[in-house]
Amino acid sequence: MDNSILLEEFTAIGINHKRASVTVRECFSLSVDQQRNLLRDAAEHGIPGLLIVSTCNRTELLAHAPDAELISLLLVKHSGGTAEDFREFGFIKHGEDAVRHIFRVAVGLEAQILGDLQIIKQVKEGYKHAVDTGMADASLHRLMQFVSRTHKRSRNETSLGVGAATTAYAAVQLAKKEMQSFRGRKVLLVGAGKIGKVTCKNLISMGAADVTVVNRNPDRAEKLSNRFEIKISDFKNLDIEIARADLVIVATGAPQAVITNEHFELCDPDAGVKTLIDLSVPRNISTSVNDLSYVNLINMDMLNDRLDETFREREANVPQVEAIIEEEFEAFCQWMREKRVVPTIRALSDKLDAIRRAEVERFRNKLTEDTIDHVDHLTRRIVNKIMAHSIDHIKGSQEKQEEITKVIRDMYNISEENDS
Question: What domains appear along the chain, each with residue ranges and CATH number?
């Protein structure tokens, strides 16, 4: 059976860093609440399975449904993006291309940072939201199992995951290059969430010794402070800490800017250039801050992993990872083939068993109970052997499965309605 026929109901749509700038991407970003509302809305429209992958570099939807227009409209409806921007900067993939895309995303081949270590966590988080809202049907559930196994194999069988391949690592690496060294430099980290933790770890490992963390939730900041032995400051003192800092890295996940020009009123313009890195989408640093003569503002679009000495090694592993993807993709297609013939197999089994029981009943009054029990047992074994042979033949004839199932349906008068 042609894979394109098997997978024709899968659709992937979205916005990512390959075609859309951070200015566009932040409009289509989805909060957790927005994701859940979108999933519920999709359920009401009859979509059986939907996965949302929302990161700083992408907002993408993989649906077990063929209606790309509906899925695109749902993204626009629940985000701040427009239909016009989606048509210009978005993408739509169908069938095989859609399914292969989620494999590539999950292992990090489509990431801004090749082999990104965080992306699989974000894919799994999206899958959890789908499960929690009842939007993970059997096909999506099994697909995610194959995707997870592909990621695991890409790490165990290749060197794609070598080094610290994350956007946070790339950001700290770029900052170190811009500043030449962290020696004697004051670093301010705004945000103590997932990205903040990874960023802090990278700062310390690359030699930053004077790091202060600021977070709206003081408990999170305190945990990060205790873990890495860094300083902590109150969020209300953000302007004071910015004035002291040489490097400011922001990753709060807030839906709007948390740092604006007002936060720089205490700064001395002659004290040297301040490097600011915004790791958030939507952006957490107002773009107008870049107009200040002593500020060097870096956003997500300016990051890459070319500075990482392990990049070439990871890049050399891409063909091997693609081969793994193809193996697991074919394994998923095989599962889909078997899934398509299961209703016919079940209906055939029911039909043969009905014939068997009817014949046994014809002789019930003519035989003793012991004999009937033996006949019942014998006829069940005969039907089971016939079914075992039939199942092996159907599943083993991949290219002719559709033709064979049609013959079986016609032969035994099995209709599509019998499958449900």
Answer: 3-163 (3.30.460.30), 167-305 (3.40.50.720), 339-419 (no CATH)
